[in-house]
Amino acid sequence: MKRVKRAAACAAVASMLLVGCGAESDAGNGEAADGESSAASADSTAQSGPVLPSKGPYIKGELGGCFLPKTDASVEPMQVTGPKLTLPAIRFSPPVGTRPSAVLVMLHQTDGDRCGWGDFAILAALQGVAGLSYDQCGYAAARCSIEDLDDPVPQVRAALAEVEKQWPGVPVVLVGASMGGSQTVRAAAAGVDVDGWVDLSGPSTWADVELASVAGRIRTPGLVAISEDTDGADEAAAAQALAQATSSTFVPAEVGHGWDLVVEDDRLTEIGQQIIAYAAR
Q1: To 10 degrees, what angle do helices 179-189 and 152-166 make?
Q2: Tell me: the pLDDT tens digits for 124-140?
Q3: Which residues, in sequence order, are bridge partners of residue 32?
Q4: In sequence order, what are the beta bridge partners of 37?
Q5: Structure confidence at residue 216 (pLDDT)
Q6: d(Cα 246, Cα 224) in Å, to the nearest integer?
Q7: Which of 175, 166, 224 is CA-nearest to residue 195?
Q8: If you write DSSP's letter for every residue of the chain in order, what string do you get?
Q9: Is it the case that residue 147 has pLDDT exceeding 80?
Q10: Regarding predicted confidence, which is higher, 152 or 56?
Q11: CA 41, 17, 277, 153: dihedral to nearest 10 degrees?
Q12: How far apart are CA 204 and CA 232, in angstroms?
């Protein structure tokens, strides 16, 4: 697989993720050295990094309804196509002349579409991490005639093919919010060719698939973040168990769900910054 060259870097996942959190973690089981999980706050913003213009101007044309602010990042509508799939998408590129250090393929939650990742993806692009978000089958303007609309694998593979055309050889990380988080775990367990994965508030069961039942198939450590206050003790415990089962880093958030964990007040939260560090490691 073309991603094998990244295997050595995975051993450093936990330490890279905890930049700015004031904690050290054990990459073997995703828990901190003192026995507590590595802590991060979804409502705690990073002290540095780009800030989005809060009052526009906004990108016009096909993406006008997304209300995405204009910045030095390039934001372009596109389509992800594959066998029996046509998925409206958005490509987020770093400023002109910057080769991306990584690419995020982003899976949305049920109350959103390709637009919902816009603020996060623009902030990531301004830090040199490109992105692609798309309408998943069954949502927004996606046109799909695959047998199982809830199967994330053919959709993710089609998105990865587009990424490889645009940014050949650049490391790729799947990032999913809520439903998208669960679908990200399923895709990683199915062996899609990516360098990492991030699950933000993914339900422990989605489309009749228990994430615990597929966790043993995942070979690349990822990042699992959830707020117990928002999603409940049972879901938080299941998320921590998923992180342990996949040798991933578990990040408890104070509050928020899905993509609310990564952007606040027009800038990346600590968790948002951790995802950038994880992707670019």
Answers
A1: 80
A2: 999 999 999 999 999 99
A3: 25
A4: 31
A5: 98
A6: 10
A7: 175
A8: -TTGGGHHHHTTHHHHHTTTTT--EETTTTEETTSSBPP--TT-B-SSS----TT--B--GGGGGG-PBP-SSEEEEEEEEETTEEEEEEEEEPSTT---SEEEEEE--TT--GGGGHHHHHHHHHTTEEEEEEPPTTSTT-EE--S-TT-HHHHHHHHHHHHHHHSTT--EEEEEETHHHHHHHHHHHTT-S-SEEEEES--SEETTEEHHHHGGG--S--EEEEEHHHH-HHHHHHHHHHHHHTTPEEEEESS--GGGGTEETTEEBHHHHHHHHHHT-
A9: yes
A10: 152
A11: -90
A12: 12
Summarised one tens digit per residue, pLDDT across range 212-256 is 999 999 999 999 999 999 999 999 999 999 999 999 999 999 999
Nearest to 263 by CA among 253, 271, 255: 271
Q: Mean pLDDT throughout 109-130?
A: 98
Q: What is the pLDDT of residues 82-91, one digit of tens each?
A: 999 999 999 9
β-strand pairing of 263-264 with 267-268? antiparallel
CA angle 266, 281, 156 (to 5 degrees): 75
**Token output for 245:** 């089962």
Which residues, in sequence order, are bridge partners of residue 196? 173
